[in-house]
Specification:
Layout: H1 8-17, H2 24-33, H3 48-56, E1 65-71, E2 77-82, E3 88-96, E4 99-103, E5 107-108, E6 126-127, H4 130-144, E7 150-153, H5 163-174, E8 186-190, H6 194-201, E9 208-212, H7 218-224, H8 233-247, E10 251-257, H9 265-274, E11 280-286, H10 300-312, E12 316-320
Parallel strand pairs: 4-7, 7-8, 8-9, 9-10, 10-11, 11-12
Antiparallel strand pairs: 1-2, 2-3, 3-4, 5-6
Helix pairs in contact: 1-2, 4-5, 6-8, 9-10
Bound molecules: iron/sulfur cluster.
């Protein structure tokens, strides 16, 4: 019954069932997503009668509370939110030459336990609703007072492990009556759940896809991403090929570089083999340390060598420099302040 958790089409059905014209739903959607209004009684464009009916029928508007806002000198801002049930999530605002990108969380904690990622050390609590995922963008956008250009589902949690709510959020955020962030400006970043990628290929909307590979073979990948034991790389590549066939879009490969773990030049050569037949670009991300995890970032010269090998093979490769590390907002650091005292060594 949370109005923020509804697509525009669902809101239209609700207002029609209450005896109002469907176009009224657009006002409600715009109050929620463009104007950050969180109280039905404040939606004064609606008739008093409709507002009363919505309230009497149990409709309400959920709302995240910003509990902290941390800024890094590089311009990255981390937002800490509290949910209605007292749980905490984090989202990140990145500013690249004025273009604003928000990294959204989709779950409270994560079930997948990737060993380089602080969120993986947190206990999984629950999935976020589409309303809660969208609200991160609404609140951040209201806090900075300007348009958001891009969305990446790359915060806490695995988006394809909360499939329905994630894809619903893509639809909600893309709607021109709301945030109007186009499907092509939204990226789902997954650790590589083949069934989820195949399901995505069956949708009628195609957000961008980023896949965190981190290793070119199953043995090494399993040490970094435990889920790889269940989802071998062959299945993952087939799912990626299917998505690419449907969308005709380039897929981004994320590769977190950890010293003496996955940064050997031989692995770059194997990665070239593995990616053959796919149209991809590779992001090499220097590992970002956090308490409880003993991996070390790869030295810059090794990252550079890795990049050169991929580039020589014709694969566009970018080194992603750390952003927001001082506030633990960089890749793999979300939730780092709340992990139990535990080490991967
Ligand atoms: Fe979960 Fe993503 Fe972290 Fe892996 S990298 S533990 S999938 S949040």
């Amino acid at each position: 019954m949370d109005l923020k958790n509804k697509t525009l089409a669902e809101l239209k059905a609700i207002v029609a069932s209450l005896g109002s014209k469907e176009y009224i739903a657009k006002y409600i959607f715009s109050f929620l997503h463009q104007h950050n209004i969180n109280d039905i009684s404040l939606m004064t464009t609606l008739s008093k009668e409709l507002r009363q009916k919505l309230t009497d029928d149990g409709f309400f508007i959920s709302q995240l509370k910003i509990t902290e806002k941390l800024s890094d000198p590089d311009g990255t801002v981390k937002y800490l939110f509290e949910t209605y049930d007292g749980q905490n999530i984090e989202s990140v605002l990145l500013d690249e030459n004025g273009r604003k990108t928000i990294c959204l969380s989709t779950q409270i904690g994560c079930r997948l336990g990737c060993r380089f990622c602080a969120t993986g050390y947190l206990k999984f609590a629950r999935n976020l609703t589409a309303g809660e995922i969208a609200d991160q963008a609404i609140k951040i956008s209201a806090s900075i007072g300007c348009k958001i250009n891009n969305i990446v589902f790359m915060g806490m949690g695995e988006p394809l492990d909360n499939y329905e709510n994630t894809i619903k959020t893509v639809r909600i955020l893309a709607d021109p009556a709301g945030k109007n962030i186009g499907i092509r400006k939204q990226t789902i970043s997954t650790v590589g759940l083949p069934d989820g990628i195949k399901k995505l290929a069956d949708e009628e909307i195609y957000p961008r896809l980023a896949v965190s590979l981190h290793a070119p073979d199953d043995d090494l990948r399993k040490q970094i991403v435990p889920a790889a034991a269940k989802y071998p790389i062959g299945r993952l590549l087939n799912a990626m090929k299917l998505y690419q066939k449907k969308t005709d879009r380039r897929i981004t490969i994320e590769y977190c570089m950890m010293e003496d773990i996955n940064d050997n030049p031989d692995l770059a050569l194997r990665l070239v083999q593995v990616l053959r037949g796919l149209y991809v670009s590779v992001n090499l991300i220097e590992y970002n340390p956090h308490p409880g995890c003993n991996f070390k970032p790869s030295p810059q010269d090794r990252i550079k060598t890795f990049k050169d090998i991929l580039m020589q093979a014709g694969i566009e490769t970018i080194i992603r420099y750390r952003r927001g590390r001082s506030i633990k907002a960089a890749c793999g650091q979300l939730g780092a302040d709340r992990i139990p005292n535990k080490s991967n060594s």
